[in-house]
Structures are given as structure tokens and as C-alpha cells.
């Protein structure tokens, strides 16, 4: 007899997952365990709007335990008044979730991303399509974080806008950056007011930042590959077609290995789908390459005034403002790369 | 009643049935039945669903029923559970 | 004659497969569980499913017990509202600590019986004693109502309550077991022992069941169908017990025929408790083995 019970003891969750070669998810909101007598034989957690750390003891596979976990977590989600769930899973497990109404929205060799939502990507694509109705039939895009927006970003945007009939700037919406999303997008809008042929749009749930990609889910060395491929798969299947994107502009990446790997994958994948990737060399100021991470590092070291040469006026004005005090403090206190 | 939020009852295990109710954006009523005994029993199952929807006065919604060989009384139980939850606004 | 309850198998109330197959697994009673086996968000679902099961199914003589939710929850009354009209044999209220608990539940059941014009007092109670206070008050609980037909000891919650560790030898629940048996027999009702929770330890199960039988329990609960057969074997009277009981009955009949007032057998005085026991053993034997050993 299998009984489902909430598990509150994190060490129990961790040890069960460890035995399956899975890591403990960060920030767990709820965990259900399937018990056979006193023994845990299956486990699954909700973290925000994703299901994570789902595993079944190999002695009990094929007994519907996975189904119990999935059903329980879906019902719990509904109880918590959410109606949107995301799951990353290995491709051979995808079918288990699809029976419960999950839809595949991205796929790569190592992972599948599924979504359970009545609105979800369908509505997102609809909104993109509506947006594109009155725009030219061949457009360009830049996907950016803008943490914060630098003159390097501005240069890239200006170049792309000059070379394209229309430019979409897609902003990563995940709030895992030191500058929060609403500030980032505000600075982008302000810094590009002078450019007429652009639309600045939120990336929604569908731009996968490497921070949100679950590290519990696969090995360290496969992580970056899986994240890049999945993100790009979603881009070419769902986002690019709705916006009629023919070109994607990106800055060269001299520092971050993850980003430079991503750019390589991007060139590969997008060309196969008929989208050109334009890699523009980063600009330099007095021999220093302009990068947002450098700007954040300077703020961290208290050298706020010295960021001026790297930032458009609109961004700089914000960075030194009283309004940004909380952000400056946070940056000083953090040792995060992002 | 109109289905106004997403509600689930039951499961996909053997002998059970998973009932998922969703709101529709037009005011229509959709019934989608998947059953492992579709050929033999679809009509009977549909009748049970219709009767239950009538009992709860359901005017609109997306009714998805995934049957895994449930007895009639199980199907009725899961439908009643889902519809009661929908009524309560769960 | 008391109903035979060698085994009581727990079945999760929200699981159709198990609910509808529960009765072919060989247990004398099945317990449809609305309490611990059901997560909070599914209490309504289990309740409705169990109600439908009671309505529709033919249980072929297996006793149906419903474990409702505890009286300190918001669920127990809804459980009874839905279940009582469908005539289960027994209601098993968990976490019973005093006679007042029983009275409260009984009053509620009676109200439903009156409201719905049901036969009164047919539905019985088997309270689950799983705390120190419950053990202390076991006798008053046993006597709290004529509906109470057995006491059931739940060791898992009890040992947690005691701050003790549950072991195979069972020293930590020895007193509680004894106390519950005494209370039950003093009140002339049955005593049912706690289930063995290690599904894979058959040896431990057998040891634990033998301890319970030897202490005077009439039966034992089980949480796995795999345990039912073993427990049945242990709580079924042995050949010796049956033979002895047969001889007791013969001695009584002979004495009655000869008009003798005092009967003895094998140097032991045969009086009422021994007669009762003998009749009970024979009835188990006849009912479960069809009169053949």
C-alpha cells in the first residue's frame, strides 16, 4: 500500500535524491513522498512554478509511483492557486508528463522542457504574432539581460537597428540579476528612445537563463550544453517564427565561457533554421572592453563614478541616483557573478 | 455553473480516471474522453458524464476525462469530486 | 457471538483499484482509510469514492470499517454525513482519548440515523487508541457506548507520544498492549493489535503477531496485503486449541444431560469464561476453515 505524505525534513529528501544521483533542488516550497510502510520509494518537489527533484526508487519503477507523484503535485499546485507548471525532464520520461496534460515546448538531446498551463506559450506566441502584424516581414532581434544596460548594448542595438527594417529587443525576464527586471527594461527603453524602429518586449518564461536552468537535473558538464540547446530550441520553434526574425544580433563574448559556448551553439542551430547570426565585436573604451559585469564589479568595489564612461547617460543617472541605493548595497554585499 | 478555474480529480492509475476541468474563453462546453475501453464503453461513459454535468448544471467548460478502466461508480465519484471543487471555486 | 476479526487490512480510501479488490485479499475486515493514508487536499475525493463504493459494491461477508478523520479536524463530520447513510459495518475513529470523544461521535452518528431514518445502533465503533491518555482511559472508552465492539491499539503514534522507539521486541508497548487487552476484556469486547510496519520483514511480522496473540489480542491490523495470510494463520486457533475447545463443549453437553452442576475437564474447572472461549474458538474454526482442520 503506497501512501502519499508531505516531507518536511530536508535531509530525508536530500539522501533519497542522492541515492538516485540527483541533487537537492534549491528553494523547495513543497515535497511529497510516496511511502511503502515507513520507506520512501518516490519523491517530488514544487519550487515556485516548477516541479523538481522527482525520483522513484528503481525497485519500484513501473508501479505507477511517478504518476502518483505527478498527480499529487499538480493538485497541490492548483490548491496553491497557481495554474502554471514547468518541468525539465529527460527525453525518455517526457511521455509520463504528457499524459497529464503537459506540453513539450523545447527539446534537446539531454532534456525536455514541458509546460502545464491553460495560457502559457500559446498565449505568448499569440501576443508576439499580434505584435508582428504591422511590422516588416523580415526582422532582427537581440536577446539581452541588460544588467545594467551599457554603451556596449547601445552600440549593438544601434547597429542592428540601422541594418534592419525592424528590431526586437527581447529582455530576459527572470529576476535573478542584481538589477531587477523592471529597472533593466526601463533603462533599456530610456536609453533607446531615440531609435524609431524597435520594439522592446519581455522574454516571458521562454528565455532560459542559465541561472534558472536546474542544476539538480543533470551533470555539471552537461548542464551548459543542455541549457543552451534547450533555450535555442524554444527560440527557433516558438519565438522567431512569430516575429518573422531573419537575423539575431549578439555581442562577442570575451569573458564568460558559458555565454561564448552559447553563442557557438546559436550559430549552429539558427543557421539550420535559416536565421543569420550576426556577431558584433564588443566596443572598447580606452582599451577596456565594455561589459555589464565589469560595471557591476566596479560598483561592488565602490567605484561607482568611474562607471560613467561605460554607460549611456540614462543608465549612469540611475546608477548614481538615490533610487538605486538599495541595488548598490546589494551589489556591494554580493559575490554573485550576476 | 461555468467552469472558472482549473480543477483536477482522480489519477491515471489502473482502475481510476483523471478528470480535468478547465475554463473556456468562449462560452462553450467541450467534452474530451480518452478511454482504454473506448470502443466498447464510450457511449456508456459519455452518458455518465452528461448526467453528472446536468446534475451540476454545467453550462460551459473544457471537460477532459482520461479513463484507465474505472468502474462506473469510480467515474461518478471523480466527476462529482471535480465538479464540487469547481463549484467551491477551488 | 462476537464477529471474527483476525485480520483488519488497511486500504487507502482514495485508491479505486485497492478499494474494490480489498475484499478478495483474505482479511476478515477491511478498513477504508480516510485519515492518514489521504493527503489533506484529497480528503473530499476519498470520501466521495468510499461513499460510492459502499453504495455499489457487494463485499461478500467481509466486514467494512471506515477510519474517519479525528475529532479535532474539520473533516470528521463531513465523513460521517456522507458515510453513515451507506451503512458501513464499523466506524473507526482515530486518536480517541476519553469517553467524551466517543460520546461526541456517537451522538453525531445517532443524529444522522434519526435524520435519515436509518436503523439505529447497527453501525458499531472500534476506537483507535494511540496516545498515553488513550491508554490511561482505555476502560472508560471501552464502556462509553454499547456500540463499541473492540479497542484497537495504534503503536506508531503511541510510541511517538511516549517518546519511545518502536522495536521488534515491543518492550516499549508491552504495558500499553496489556492495558488495552485488560480494558477490552473487562468490558467484554475484543482487542485488536497494531499493524507491523516493516513490509519486508516477514520474520518480524510473525514474532510480533505471536506476541499479540499470546497476550490475548483477538486480531491484528495489517498495512500490506502480504501480511494478511501470516496474521490469519497465527490468529486462527491451533489444532490443540480446537481439540480442547471441542472437548469442553462435549463436557458441557454431557454435564447438562446428566444434570450435573459442576463440570471439570483435565483437572480444570470449566466455568463461564472457559465455555465462552471454547465456543468462540469453535466458531472461528467453523467459519474460516469450514469445520475441517
What is the topology?
The complex is a heterotrimer of chains A (338), B (90) and C (293).
Chain A: E1 2-6, H1 10-19, E2 30-36, E3 39-47, E4 50-56, H2 65-79, E5 84-89, H3 94-98, E6 103-107, E7 112-117, H4 120-132, E8 139-144, H5 151-163, E9 167-171, H6 181-191, E10 198-202, H7 220-243, E11 245-251, H8 257-272, E12 276-280, E13 284-285, E14 288-289, H9 292-300, H10 313-319, H11 325-333
Parallel strand pairs in A: 4-5, 8-9, 8-11, 9-10, 11-12
Antiparallel strand pairs in A: 1-2, 2-3, 3-4, 5-7, 6-7, 13-14
Helix pairs in contact in A: 4-7, 6-10, 7-8, 9-11
Chain B: E1 7-10, E2 17-22, E3 29-35, H1 38-55, E4 61-67, H2 72-88
Parallel strand pairs in B: 3-4
Antiparallel strand pairs in B: 1-2, 2-4
Helix pairs in contact in B: 1-2
Chain C: E1 7-12, H1 16-21, E2 29-33, H2 43-56, E3 63-67, H3 76-83, E4 90-92, H4 99-115, E5 124-125, E6 128-129, H5 132-136, H6 138-143, E7 150-153, H7 155-162, H8 171-186, E8 190-193, H9 202-215, E9 219-222, H10 225-235, H11 239-258, E10 263-265, E11 268-270, H12 272-289
Report on the structure:
The complex is a heterotrimer of chains A (338), B (90) and C (293). Chain A is of the alpha/beta class and 338 residues long. Chain A has two domains: 117 residues, Gcn5-related N-acetyltransferase (GNAT) (Aminopeptidase, 3-Layer(aba) Sandwich); 212 residues, HUPs (Rossmann fold, 3-Layer(aba) Sandwich), CATH 3.40.50. Chain A is built from eleven helices and 14 strands. In chain A, helix 5 links the parallel strand 8 and strand 9. Chain A starts with a strand and ends in a 5-residue tail after the last helix. The model of chain A has no long low-confidence stretch (mean pLDDT 87). Chain B has one domain: 2-Layer Sandwich (Ribosomal Protein S5, domain 2). A four-stranded mixed β-sheet of chain B has the order 1-2-4-3. In chain B, helix 1 runs parallel beside helix 2. Chain B starts with 6 loop residues before the first strand and ends with a helix. The mean pLDDT of chain B is 90. By secondary structure, chain C is an alpha/beta fold. Chain C folds into two domains: 229 residues, Phosphoenolpyruvate-binding domains (TIM Barrel, Alpha-Beta Barrel); 51 residues, no CATH class. Chain C is built from twelve helices and eleven strands. In chain C, the strands form two sheets. Chain C has a nine-stranded parallel β-sheet with strand order 5-4-3-2-1-9-8-7-6. In chain C, helix 2 runs parallel beside helix 3 and helix 11 packs across helix 12. Chain C is globular and about 65 Å long. Chain C starts with 6 loop residues before the first strand and ends with a helix. The mean pLDDT of chain C is 91. The interface between B and C is medium-sized, with 18 and 14 residues.
Amino acid at each position: 500500500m503506497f501512501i502519499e505524505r508531505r516531507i518536511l525534513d530536508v535531509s530525508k529528501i536530500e539522501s533519497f535524491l542522492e541515492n538516485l544521483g540527483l541533487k537537492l533542488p534549491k528553494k523547495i516550497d513543497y515535497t511529497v513522498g510516496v511511502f511503502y510502510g515507513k520507506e520512501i520509494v518516490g519523491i517530488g518537489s514544487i519550487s515556485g512554478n516548477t516541479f523538481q527533484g522527482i525520483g522513484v526508487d528503481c525497485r519500484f519503477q513501473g508501479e505507477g509511483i511517478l504518476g502518483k507523484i505527478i498527480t499529487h503535485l499538480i493538485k497541490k499546485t492548483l490548491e496553491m492557486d497557481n495554474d502554471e507548471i514547468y518541468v525539465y525532464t529527460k527525453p525518455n520520461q517526457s511521455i509520463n508528463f504528457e499524459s497529464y496534460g503537459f506540453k513539450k515546448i523545447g527539446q534537446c538531446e539531454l532534456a525536455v522542457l514541458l509546460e502545464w498551463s491553460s495560457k502559457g506559450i500559446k498565449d505568448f506566441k499569440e501576443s508576439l504574432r499580434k505584435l508582428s502584424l504591422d511590422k516588416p516581414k523580415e526582422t532582427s532581434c537581440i536577446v539581452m539581460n541588460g544588467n545594467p544596460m551599457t554603451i556596449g548594448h547601445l552600440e549593438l542595438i544601434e547597429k542592428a537597428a540601422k541594418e534592419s527594417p525592424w528590431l526586437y529587443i527581447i529582455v530576459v525576464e527572470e529576476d535573478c540579476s542584481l538589477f531587477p527586471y523592471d529597472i533593466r527594461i526601463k533603462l533599456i527603453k530610456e536609453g533607446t528612445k531615440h531609435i524609431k524602429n524597435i520594439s522592446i518586449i519581455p522574454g516571458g518564461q521562454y528565455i532560459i537563463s542559465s541561472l534558472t536552468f536546474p542544476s539538480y537535473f543533470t551533470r555539471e558538464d552537461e548542464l551548459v550544453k543542455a541549457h543552451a540547446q534547450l533555450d535555442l530550441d524554444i527560440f527557433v520553434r516558438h519565438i522567431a517564427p512569430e516575429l518573422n526574425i531573419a537575423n539575431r544580433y549578439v555581442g562577442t563574448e570575451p569573458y564568460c565561457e558559458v555565454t561564448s559556448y552559447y553563442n557557438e551553439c546559436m550559430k549552429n542551430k539558427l543557421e539550420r533554421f535559416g536565421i543569420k547570426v550576426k556577431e558584433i565585436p564588443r566596443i572598447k573604451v580606452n582599451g577596456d572592453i565594455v561589459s555589464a559585469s565589469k560595471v557591476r564589479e566596479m560598483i561592488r568595489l565602490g567605484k561607482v563614478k568611474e562607471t560613467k564612461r561605460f554607460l549611456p547617460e540614462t543608465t549612469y543617472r540611475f546608477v548614481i541616483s538615490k533610487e538605486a541605493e538599495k541595488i548598490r548595497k546589494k551589489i556591494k554585499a554580493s559575490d554573485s557573478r550576476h | 455553473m461555468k467552469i472558472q478555474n482549473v480543477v483536477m480529480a482522480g489519477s491515471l492509475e489502473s482502475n481510476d480516471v483523471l478528470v480535468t476541468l478547465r475554463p473556456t474563453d468562449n462560452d462553450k462546453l467541450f467534452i474530451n474522453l480518452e478511454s482504454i475501453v473506448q470502443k466498447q464503453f464510450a457511449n456508456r461513459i459519455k452518458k455518465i458524464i452528461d448526467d453528472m454535468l446536468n446534475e451540476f448544471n454545467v453550462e460551459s467548460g473544457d471537460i477532459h476525462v482520461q479513463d484507465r478502466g474505472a468502474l462506473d461508480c469510480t467515474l461518478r465519484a471523480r466527476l462529482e469530486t471535480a465538479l464540487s471543487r469547481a463549484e467551491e471555486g477551488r | 457471538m462476537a464477529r471474527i476479526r483476525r485480520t483488519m487490512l488497511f486500504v487507502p480510501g482514495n485508491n479505486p483499484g485497492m478499494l474494490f479488490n480489498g475484499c478478495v485479499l483474505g482479511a476478515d475486515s477491511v478498513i477504508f482509510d480516510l485519515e492518514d493514508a489521504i493527503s489533506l487536499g484529497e480528503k473530499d475525493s476519498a470520501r466521495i469514492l468510499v461513499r460510492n463504493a459502499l453504495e455499489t459494491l457487494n463485499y461478500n461477508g467481509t466486514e467494512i470499517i471506515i477510519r474517519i478523520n479525528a475529532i479535532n479536524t474539520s473533516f470528521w463530520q463531513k465523513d460521517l454525513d456522507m458515510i453513515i447513510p451507506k451503512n458501513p459495518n464499523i466506524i473507526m475513529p482515530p486518536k480517541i482519548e476519553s469517553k467524551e470523544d466517543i460520546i461526541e461521535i456517537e451522538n453525531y452518528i445517532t443524529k444522522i440515523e434519526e435524520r435519515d431514518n436509518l436503523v439505529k445502533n447497527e453501525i458499531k465503533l472500534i476506537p483507535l487508541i494511540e496516545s498515553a491518555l488513550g491508554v490511561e482511559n482505555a476502560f472508560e472508552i471501552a464502556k462509553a457506548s454499547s456500540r463499541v465492539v473492540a479497542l484497537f491499539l495504534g503503536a506508531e503514534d503511541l510510541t511517538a507520544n511516549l517518546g519511545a522507539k518502536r522495536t521488534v521486541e515491543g518492550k516499549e508497548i508491552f504495558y500499553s498492549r496489556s492495558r488495552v487487552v485488560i480494558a477490552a476484556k473487562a468490558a467484554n469486547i475484543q482487542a485488536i493489535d497494531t499493524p507491523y510496519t516493516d513490509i519486508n520483514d516477514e520474520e518480524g511480522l510473525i514474532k510480533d503477531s505471536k506476541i499479540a496473540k499470546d497476550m490475548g489480542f483477538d486480531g491484528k491490523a495489517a498495512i500490506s496485503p502480504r501480511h494478511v495470510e501470516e496474521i490469519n494463520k497465527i490468529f486462527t486457533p491451533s489444532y490443540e486449541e480446537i481439540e480442547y475447545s471441542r472437548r469442553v463443549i462435549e463436557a458441557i453437553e454431557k454435564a447438562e444431560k446428566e444434570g450435573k452442576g459442576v463440570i471439570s475437564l483435565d483437572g480444570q474447572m470449566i466455568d463461564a469464561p472457559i465455555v465462552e472461549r471454547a465456543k468462540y474458538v469453535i466458531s472461528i474454526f467453523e467459519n474460516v476453515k469450514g469445520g475441517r482442520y
